[in-house]
TrEMBL record, chain A:
Record region (Disordered): 363-388
Transmembrane segments: 12-30, 36-54, 61-81, 121-144, 151-170, 200-220, 241-267, 287-311, 323-347
Keywords recorded for this protein, A-Z: Cell membrane, Membrane, Transmembrane, Transmembrane helix
Protein name, per record: Urea ABC transporter permease subunit UrtC
Location(s), subcellular: Cell membrane
GO molecular function, one term: branched-chain amino acid transmembrane transporter activity
Database matches in InterPro entries: ABC_transp_permease, ABC_transptr_urea_perm_UrtC, LivM-like
CC annotations in GO: plasma membrane
The keyword Transmembrane is annotated on this UniProt entry: yes
The UniProt record lists the keyword Transmembrane: yes
Pfam families in the cross-refs: BPD_transp_2
Automatic annotation (TrEMBL), chain B:
Source domain of life: Bacteria
Limits of the ABC transporter domain: 12-251
Pfam families: ABC_tran (PF00005), BCA_ABC_TP_C (PF12399)
Gene Ontology CC: one annotated term: plasma membrane
SUPFAM superfamilies hit by this protein: P-loop containing nucleoside triphosphate hydrolases
Keywords noted in UniProt: ATP-binding, Nucleotide-binding, Transport
GO molecular function: ATP binding; ATP hydrolysis activity
Annotated organism of origin: Roseibium aggregatum
Protein name according to UniProt: Urea ABC transporter ATP-binding protein UrtD
Length: 388, 251
C-alpha cells in the first residue's frame, strides 16, 4: 500500500470516520458494559458481512457457509483459552486432571494430538488466519477450478456448514459437543471476564474492524475489485481476456473466510464461549441477511446492516420471542422486493447526493480545481448503480 | 486428405479437427489455414459448425481429435487464458462486456498487464495504460464516452467496445463471431472500415452471415456445411461455386 489517498476517497474517509465515531465514542458513552459487550458481539458478525460484500456482492459468489469460518476462528481461540483454563490445579477433581472438563466427562484420558499446539498463543493466533484460509482454499480450489458456481456453490457451502456442525456435535469428547467450549477465563493470565477486559476487548475488536474495512476498501479499489464485478457480470469475457478466473475466486473466498475467522475469534474473547450454534446453516444464512440488509455492494452498509438486524433481533426476541423468526423472514423478503440494495442503496438514493455536494464544496487540499477529466473520473461506482 | 504440414508459413493451422457431441460430429475432419495479415471469413448455413470452430480454437470446447497449431504451438492442450496469452483473441456473438463498469474500465481490464491475483492488486493506472486506452477508444469510436457506464451504450457501441477490448490485448489472431449482427447500415460501414484498419499486423477470422459485409472485408472465404468444408477461396470464386449456391447462397 503506497498512498492511502489513492484508494480512500473523501466519501470513504467520511464513512470510516462515522463508523469509528459510533464504535469508539458514541456507543461506549451511551451504553453500560453489558449492552456494550452485546454491541461488540454484533460487531464480530460485521467481519463476516463485509467478507460477504466482497465475495457475494461484488464477486457474485454466494456462500451460505460463512458460519464455518466464523466457527473455525472462534474454536481456535476457544481451544487456546480452554487449555489455559484447564490447569491441573483447576481441574484437580477430574479423573484426569489437566485436560478440558468435557473431555474428562467423555472418558478421554489424554489430550488429543490436534489440541496440543493450541497450548501456544502464537500458534493459535497464526491458526486463526491459516486454518480458515487453508480450508477455504481447499473448497475454493475444488469448486472453482471445476467451474462449480452459482446455486450449486451455495448449496455445497451450506452442506459443509451442516457437516461441520454434525461433526462438532458428534465428537463431543474432542469438541465439547452441542454445548461448545465454555467456561473460558484468562488470556495469558489476564482475566477476560472483568468489565475492564470487556472494554479493552471491545476497543480491540473495533480497531480490527476498522482495519478490515480499510483492507477491503483497498482490495475493492484495486483492479482486483473491478475484476470481481467483471467476473460477476461476464465470467467468460474475463477468462478470454487472459485471466485465470478460478484464482481470483479462490482469493476472494479465502479473504472472506479469514475476515470471518477474525470475527469468530473476537466473538469467543468477548462472549466467553464458542458453540456449534454459530457454525451451522441458520447462523450462516443470518449472516447473508445482515449483508443483504446493509446492501451487499457496500462494506460500510454491511456493518450497519449487521448492527440493525442484530439490534432488532435482540429487541424483538426479548419482547415477542415467538414472532422474531417470522420478522426476520419478512425483513429478508422486504429487502429483496423493496430495497434490493439495502441500507447502502437507500443512502445512495436519498442522502448520498447531498453528502457528495457538501464534500465537493470544500476545495481540495491543493486549493486548485481538479482538471476536467482525471483517470479516476472514469471509475464506475458499483455501489451506486448496481445491475439487478 | 491428410495434409500434415509442419510449415511455419501459416499463423494458424487447423488439421483433421474433429469434435463430437454424443456421437454427433459438429466439426468433422476439418483442415483450415489462416495466413498472416489475412481476413478470413467463415460462412455457411446455421448449424454448419462455424461457431464451434472458433470455440475449439479458443479452448472453450475441447477437440475430440486433430490439432490446432498457432505459430507452431499446439493449442488443444492449453487452457483458455493460456491461449489468450499466446495471442488469440475472441469476440462472442452477443456483445460480452462488463455492463456495471465504465467504458474506460472495460478497456483497462483487458489491458494485458497484472493478470495474476497479486498483479491485479498492485496494478497501477499509469500514463501508459491511460494513453493506450484512449488510443483504442478512438479507434472504436468511443473516445468521448470513456466515463460512461457500459450498460448505457447502444448495441453497436457495445460490439465496438468488445472489439476494442480485444484490440488492447494486441492479439495476433482476432476471432470475431458475427461482429455486425444487429448493427445499422452506417454502423456496418464503420465496422468494415475498422476491421480493414485493425488487420494491419494481425490476422482476423470472422464468422458472418451478412454477404454484403463479407464482400467488403474478406480476403479469403471458407464455406462450411455440416461440419465440413464445402468450398474455399476468394469471395468471387466461392459465390460461383454451384455447391455453395445450392446449400447456402441460393436461399
Amino acid at each position: 500500500m503506497t498512498n492511502v489517498k489513492s484508494f480512500l476517497s473523501r466519501q470513504d474517509l467520511l464513512g470510516l470516520a462515522i463508523i469509528a465515531a459510533v464504535i469508539f465514542v458514541l456507543m461506549p458513552l451511551a451504553m453500560d458494559i453489558f449492552r456494550l459487550n452485546l454491541f461488540g458481539k454484533y460487531l464480530t458478525y460485521a467481519f463476516v458481512a463485509i467478507g460477504l460484500v466482497l465475495c457475494w456482492g461484488r464477486g457474485g459468489i454466494l456462500s451460505l457457509g460463512q458460519g464455518v469460518f466464523f466457527g473455525l476462528g472462534g474454536y481456535c481461540m476457544a481451544m487456546y483459552l480452554k487449555l489455559e483454563a484447564s490447569t491441573p490445579e483447576a481441574t484437580a477433581i477430574q479423573s484426569t486432571p489437566g485436560i478440558p472438563d468435557f473431555m474428562d466427562w467423555n472418558q478421554i484420558t489424554a489430550l488429543p494430538w490436534f489440541w496440543e499446539p493450541f497450548n501456544s498463543l502464537t500458534f493459535t493466533l497464526i491458526a486463526i488466519f491459516v486454518v480458515p484460509a487453508a480450508f477455504a482454499f481447499i473448497i475454493g480450489a475444488a469448486m472453482f477450478k471445476r467451474r462449480v458456481g452459482g446455486v450449486y456453490f451455495a448449496i455445497i457451502t451450506q452442506a459443509i456448514a451442516a457437516i461441520l456442525t454434525i461433526l462438532i456435535i458428534g465428537q463431543q469428547g474432542y469438541t465439547g459437543g452441542v454445548n461448545g467450549i465454555t467456561d473460558l477465563r484468562t488470556l495469558k493470565g489476564w482475566d477476560i471476564r472483568t468489565d475492564e477486559a470487556k472494554y479493552i476487548l471491545y476497543y480491540v475488536n473495533g480497531a480490527l474492524l476498522i482495519g478490515a474495512l480499510v483492507l477491503c476498501q483497498f482490495v475493492l479499489k484495486s483492479k482486483l475489485g473491478r475484476l470481481l464485478v467483471a467476473l460477476r457480470d461476464k465470467e467468460d469475457r474475463v477468462r478470454f481476456s487472459g485471466y485465470d478466473v478460478a484464482n481470483f475466486k479462490i482469493f476472494v473466498f479465502c479473504l472472506a473466510a479469514v475476515l470471518s475467522a477474525v470475527g469468530g475469534a473476537m466473538f469467543t474473547l468477548q462472549v466467553g464461549f464458542m458453540s456449534p450454534s454459530f457454525v451451522g446453516i441458520v447462523p450462516s444464512i443470518e449472516m447473508v441477511i445482515f449483508c443483504a440488509v446493509g446492501g451487499r455492494l457496500s462494506i460500510f452498509g454491511a456493518v450497519y446492516g449487521t448492527l440493525l438486524v442484530n439490534w432488532a433481533k435482540t429487541t424483538f426476541s426479548e419482547t415477542f420471542p415467538e414472532l422474531w423468526l417470522f420478522g426476520l423472514g419478512a425483513l429478508f423478503i422486504a429487502v429483496v422486493l423493496v430495497f434490493p440494495n439495502g441500507l447502502a442503496g437507500l443512502y445512495r438514493t436519498y442522502l448520498g447526493p447531498y453528502v457528495d455536494r457538501w464534500i465537493s464544496k470544500k476545495p481540495p487540499s491543493g486549493g486548485t480545481p481538479a482538471p476536467a477529466a482525471t483517470p479516476a473520473d472514469y471509475d464506475a461506482d458499483p455501489a451506486a448503480k448496481p445491475a439487478e | 486428405m491428410n495434409v500434415v504440414s509442419n510449415n511455419t508459413d501459416f499463423l494458424l493451422s487447423v488439421e483433421n479437427l474433429t469434435v463430437s457431441f454424443d456421437g454427433f460430429k459438429a466439426v468433422n475432419d476439418l483442415n483450415l489455414y489462416v495466413d498472416e495479415n489475412e481476413i478470413h471469413v467463415i460462412i455457411g448455413p446455421n448449424g454448419a459448425g462455424k461457431t464451434t470452430v472458433l470455440d475449439l480454437i479458443c479452448g472453450r470446447t475441447k477437440a475430440t481429435d486433430g490439432s490446432i497449431k498457432f505459430r507452431n504451438k499446439e493449442l488443444t492442450e492449453l487452457r483458455e487464458h493460456e491461449i489468450v496469452r499466446e495471442g488469440v483473441g475472441r469476440k462472442f456473438q452477443n456483445p460480452t462486456i462488463y455492463e456495471d463498469l465504465t467504458v474506460f474500465e472495460n478497456l483497462e481490464i483487458s489491458f494485458p498487464r497484472g493478470r495474476s491475483v497479486f498483479g491485479a492488486l498492485t496494478f497501477k493506472r499509469d500514463a501508459e495504460v491511460v494513453t493506450r486506452v484512449r488510443e483504442i477508444a478512438e479507434m472504436v469510436f468511443l473516445d468521448t464516452l470513456l466515463g460512461m457506464q457500459a450498460a448505457l451504450l447502444s448495441h453497436g457501441q457495445k460490439q465496438w467496445l468488445e472489439i476494442g477490448m480485444l484490440l488492447i490485448q494486441d492479439p495476433e489472431l482476432l476471432m470475431l463471431d458475427e461482429p455486425v449482427a444487429g448493427m445499422s447500415v452506417s454502423e456496418r460501414k464503420q465496422t468494415a472500415k475498422l476491421l480493414n484498419e485493425i488487420t494491419k499486423g494481425r490476422s482476423v477470422m470472422v464468422v458472418e452471415h451478412d454477404m454484403k459485409f463479407v464482400e467488403d472485408i474478406a480476403h479469403r472465404v471458407t464455406v462450411m456445411h455440416q461440419g465440413k468444408i464445402l468450398a474455399e477461396g476468394s469471395m468471387a470464386k466461392v459465390q460461383a461455386d454451384p455447391k455453395v449456391v445450392e446449400v447456402y447462397l441460393g436461399h
